[in-house]
Amino acid sequence: MKLFYRSIGSGPPLIILHGLFGQSDNWLTIARRIAERYTVFLPDMRNHGQSPHAPVHSYPAMSDDLWEFMEDLSIVDPVLIGHSMGGKTAMTFALEHPGKVQKLVIIDISPRKYPERNIHTQVITQMMSLELDELGTRTEVEKVLEKKVPDTRIRMFILKNLYYKTPGKLGWRLNLEAINNNLDQLFDGIHSNARYSGPTLFVRGGNSDYIVDEDIPLIRSCFPDSVIQTIPGASHWVHADAPGPLCSVLGNFLGKECTFQTSP
After folding, report:
1. Is 110 in the active site?
2. What DSSP state is assigned to residue 24?
3. Digit-coded pLDDT (tens) for 209-225
4. How far apart, in whole angstroms, are the C-alpha atoms of residue 223 and residue 217?
5. N or C: which end of the chain has fewer CB within 10 A?
6. Annotated catalytic residue, options 48, 57, 83, 236
């Protein structure tokens, strides 16, 4: 699959993989800070953003997409950063192709199987229930969603997926049907006896329960050269809550020569 992508900066390659319901531009704030030292590639994952749609939405399939992406762009030995769904994709890829990844950064996700979270099914249900043909503007969609999704942050995150297919006609960039049909696979654990022995950083939000202490033995069994750092006060969306602290953590892990701006 030929993924849509953005790229900025110059230097050795670094790839950032976004999470479920996200898209490449969610990570532009972080990418701009890294781009002084790296060429940063930000692909839209399959069924997200401007990348193609397909009925299959699994970690092996997304890992294959990443392989093709790297082959097409002649990307060799990149640093690989992944958040949530993108993090599990990055883990899958590193375990399948350990010699193809220089360093690995996983943001707020572990290799384990997760119970299905109501928030994901609720978001998909509400998005699929909207009659976009009867709603001509983003403002109208937001007003309807305000009653269905009271959390402002989640609502704004959802709205970033709206676009005008034609003047006055809105659509979702997400392939909601495929994601809905494959949710069980997205919550599944990574089933592999392989190990990635390269330097690995796991970053967890202090207010998030996606990486808990009980996950550490599994993390270390798959990624023996791993460290785990917590960013206090951050939720699952670490990059949105604490871009400065996250950049500082990334800078320390990637090397002292990598200096990041800490301003928004």
Report:
1. no
2. G
3. 999 999 999 999 999 99
4. 10
5. C
6. 236
Of residues 1, 4, 35, the one with CA closest to residue 173: 4
Higher pLDDT residue, 142 or 93? 93
Q: How many helices (H) and strands (E) does the chain have?
A: 11, 9
What is the DSSP secondary structure assignment for residue 85, as one 8-state letter? H
For the segment 166-178, what is each residue's pLDDT rounded down to a tens digit?
888 899 999 999 9
Return the closest-CA partner of residue 168 out of 130, 122, 135: 135
d(CA 198, CA 253): 12
SS3 content of the chain, % helix, strand, coil (to 5): 40, 15, 40
Catalytic-role residue among 24, 51, 84, 208: 84
Active-site residue among 36, 177, 192, 248?
177
pTM of the model: 0.94
Active site residue 48: no
Neighbours of 227 (CB within 10 A): 14
Q: How many Å is the Cα radius of gyration of the chain?
A: 18
Query: Measured between alpha carbons, how far is 39 from 49 in angstroms, rounded to an integer?
Result: 21
Q: At 71, which helix (H) or strand (E)?
A: helix 59-72
Q: Residues for the chain: how many in total? A: 264
pLDDT of residue 256: 52
Per-residue pLDDT reduced to its tens digit, 131-141: 888 887 888 99
Q: Is 226 a catalytic residue?
A: no
Tokens of 235: 């939720």
